[in-house]
């Protein structure tokens, strides 16, 4: 196994959920942009790249987020909180993704994608599924760069949309805090493989 692969595996093993952050630690803007760029390399259905990132770093906006996140102090103490949004109209992106394709391929893909997106449940499921890929990639990239993270699903999505003026096109999937740990992550219990893996069929 190559050293590069081992490095990736070690990052995956080392990543854990951190809830206490050093409030004086910052992430340089260029480095945060690099992490987000890496996150955008995640896979997505039809390459529609369903994710959008709303980045919150200012003290003022963190304080607005705090009650929306049910007063979880990590959103204030972390250097940044990234709201991962899912694109409910990701089919519109197909026109950009396939613009250089041959006309017959372009027409086929647009017809296929638009057809699937007539189903609102499908559109929402795809938004959350594919945005989740980018979220995980962001957390792994952060760990590789020496930062800690915590995915947060517990927040008031309606108030978040209202306070941060999120367009109807996007659905809040999760918040991810990023920063330097002020206390170690709490140990977690993982289920053994024989409880989570089924071979061939139930």
From TrEMBL:
Organism: Thermoactinomyces intermedius
Domain Nitroreductase as annotated: residue spans: 13-180
Pfam families: Nitroreductase (PF00881)
PANTHER family associated with the record: NAD(P)H NITROREDUCTASE YDGI-RELATED, NAD(P)H NITROREDUCTASE YODC-RELATED
Keyword vocabulary terms for this entry: Oxidoreductase
Name listed for the protein in its UniProt record: Nitroreductase family protein
Keyword field contains Oxidoreductase: yes
Domain of life: Bacteria
UniProt GO MF annotations: oxidoreductase activity
Record-linked CDD domains: MhqN-like
Family the UniProt entry places it in: Belongs to the nitroreductase family.
């Amino acid at each position: 196994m190559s050293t590069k692969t081992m490095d990736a595996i070690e990052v995956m093993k080392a990543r854990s959920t951190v809830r206490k952050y050093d409030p004086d630690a910052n992430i340089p803007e260029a480095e945060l942009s690099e992490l987000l760029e890496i996150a955008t390399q995640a896979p997505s259905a039809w390459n529609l790249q369903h994710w959008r990132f709303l980045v919150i770093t200012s003290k003022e906006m963190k304080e607005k987020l705090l009650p929306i996140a049910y007063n979880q102090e990590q959103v204030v103490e972390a250097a940044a909180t990234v709201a991962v949004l899912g694109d409910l109209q990701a089919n519109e992106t197909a026109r950009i993704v396939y613009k250089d394709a041959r006309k017959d391929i372009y027409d086929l893909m647009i017809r296929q994608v638009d057809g699937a997106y007539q189903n609102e449940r499908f559109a929402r499921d795809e938004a959350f599924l594919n945005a989740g890929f980018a979220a995980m990639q962001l957390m792994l990239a952060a760990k590789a760069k020496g930062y800690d993270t915590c995915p947060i699903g517990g927040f008031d999505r309606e108030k978040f949309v209202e306070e941060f003026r999120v367009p109807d096109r996007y659905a809040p999937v999760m918040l991810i805090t990023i920063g330097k740990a002020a206390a170690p992550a709490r140990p977690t219990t993982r289920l053994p493989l024989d409880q989570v893996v089924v071979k061939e069929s139930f």
